[in-house]
Amino acid sequence: MLFTKNWRMSPIKLAAFVSAYFAFVLNWAFFRAVFELYQPIGTISDYFIYTVPIVLWALCYGVFLLLSIPYLHKVIIPVLLLISAAISYHSVFFNVYFDKDMLDNVLQTTPAESIRMISFSYVAWLLFLGVLPTILYIKVKCTYSIWWQEIIKRIAALMVSLVIIGGTAMIFYQDYASFFRSHLVVKHLIVPSNFVAASISKIKKMRAANTPYLAINKDAKLQKTDDKRNVLIFILGETTRAQNWGLNGYKNQTTPKLAQRIKNGEAIINFSDVSSCGTATALSVPCLFSDMGREQYDETRAKSQDNVLDALQYAGVQVQWIENNSDCKGVCTHIPTTNTIHLNLPNYCTNGECLDNIMLPELDKILDTPSNNDLMVVLHTIGSHGPTYFERYTDKERLFTPTCDTQEINRCNDEELRNTYDNSVVYVDQFIDAIITRLQQHQDWKSSVIYASDHGESLGENGIYLHGTPYAIAPKYQTQIPMVLWLSPTWIEAKGINVDCLQKHHQKPYSHDNIFHTLIGLSDVNPDTVKNYQANLDIIANCH
User: Fold this and answer.
1) Residue-wise pLDDT tens digits, 411-427
2) Taking the CB of the first residue and of the last residue of the chain, which one, N or C, has fewer CB atoms within 10 A?
3) Do 272 and 507 meet the contact criterion of CB atoms below 8 Å apart?
4) What CA–CA distance (Å, rounded) separates 420 from 416?
């Protein structure tokens, strides 16, 4: 009956109903955040909070009136309805803020990652709050007045919208200005404006991307003081957070193999206070390999000039990238790359994603190839990527139970979710251990391994899940990451490094800003030939 009825309505009325749906239904997460953040002060100003839904409706009404172009609005509004319903689901259940960085994250999501985000509740939400309203909107036949009457009616309706907004501003302007200046990020919860604003920023960024490439490190040179091969392995982690890292004193021993190596007296330095450049892979990965640091990071500039891998390659180091995640985010554009996901080996892979150990045979091929050239290999892991944490480890690493064996992580209790995530960290530990074991078979090499995660993860603390929250308000669970350095005895002796000095500073605050400079320091590249190298950001520079 609902879909067979011949609905007729003026575009002015239709815009009013659609605005109400957007304002009061799809923006529930926004209102929840506003009411949670507002602190009553016991004056008339407290009433401003109750005007926010009305003002949002008025804003939507004004915009949708302008979009009510015959025929065209039947395309624009349905698209906005469907996209807004999808975004609102993640905002309501996972406290996701949709900004330009989140849009980048979405656009770079692989089909395998997308499939793992689909759940019964998500499909039901999209169906009832996206698809059905869209069908209803398309079914409505708009009845238009004579053109001059239509213009007068629309101007009158638009005036109603402006009067509501203007009248509220006259009474509560200072309260609005004060609240939203202090809590600016809540705007990223408003649909569809968050998506539209993010899209505009993305288009501007794409237009600015046609910047000439600058090969700023073509003059990088090796500075060999011995005949030993320098082999550096950088393990790029995914979604592993510092709070659940065993070596950081976490209650569950999630890093048993690394802990045992430390007991055995191996040179392993665990840096316990490390911050990420971003809260999403799309930003963190190119940022940590760049020479800019978080505060000065510019995506356009990062894509149009050399990163640390390019500098190493120019100097004569054999650089290889092994990919087991979505992709390298442009970092490995000039670097030989092997994608292990495409191997789709049944012992490792499920539905387009693979356990990180699938990279080990590929690494073995590189390590076993006779060569005297210095070598750097980047292993881009899938690590603890959610929401399907239960797919990130094998039964051997299932040390903590009960577990959350579903992608609908908000339905699991805290213990189940934490145990599942912890098991994924145990798998990370065994992967790092396996890399170290391989390098120990070549005692004549100056070998080093550095592991750092790209960002952390929220596991339901304060109702927030996953990652990608704007950095300004992101919890430390998303910005604090584990970082570990292993040095072979041959490397220590050849480089003349004081390991006790490194251990002494292991609790010092570090960040992704240190990666570029530390990788140069770990190699045999002459740092004086690398543009923008800073010794004060090289973790090992002061411990010679």
Assistant:
1) 899 999 999 999 999 99
2) N
3) yes
4) 6
Cα distances (Å, whole numbers) of residue 95 to 249, 385, 467: 28, 18, 10
Ranges 204-208, 247-251, 408-412, 494-498: which has the least confidence: 204-208
The model's pLDDT over 316-368, given as tens digits with 9 standing for 90+, comes to 999 999 999 989 999 999 999 999 988 888 899 988 899 999 999 999 999 99
Please name the residues in contact with 303: beta carbons below 8 A apart, sequence gap of 6 or more: 209, 211, 286, 330
φ, ψ of residue 269 to 5 degrees: the values are -110, 120
Phi and psi for 227 in degrees, rounded to 5?
A: -100, 15
Domains and CATH numbers, the chain: 8-206 (no CATH), 230-543 (3.40.720.10)
Cα 280 from chain centre: 1
Give the separation between CA 195 and CA 483, rounded to whole angstroms: 34
Instruction: Write the CA distances from 530 to 182, 218, 311, 377, integer angstroms.
Output: 41, 9, 7, 19
Report the alpha-carbon distance of residue 134 to residue 71 in Å, rounded: 15
DSSP string, 221-288: -B--SSSPPEEEEEEEE-S--GGG-GGGT-SS---HHHHHHHHTT-EEEEEEEEE-S-SSHHHHHHHH
Phi, psi of 510 (to 5 degrees): -125, 175
The full DSSP string for 97-134 is: ---HHHHHHHHT--HHHHHHH--HHHHHHHIIIIIHHH
Residue type, 226: D
Listed range (272-276, 328-332, 406-410) with the worst mean pLDDT: 406-410
CB-based contact 280:105 (threshold 8 Å) = yes
Which amino acid, 499? Answer: V
Joined tokens for residue 234: 């950088």
Residue with tokens 């970082």: 483
How many Å apart are CA 201 and CA 100, to the nearest integer? Answer: 6
DSSP 8-state assignment for residue 363: H
Q: Could you give the count of Cα atoms lying within 13 Å of 454 in the half-sphere of its Cβ?
A: 26
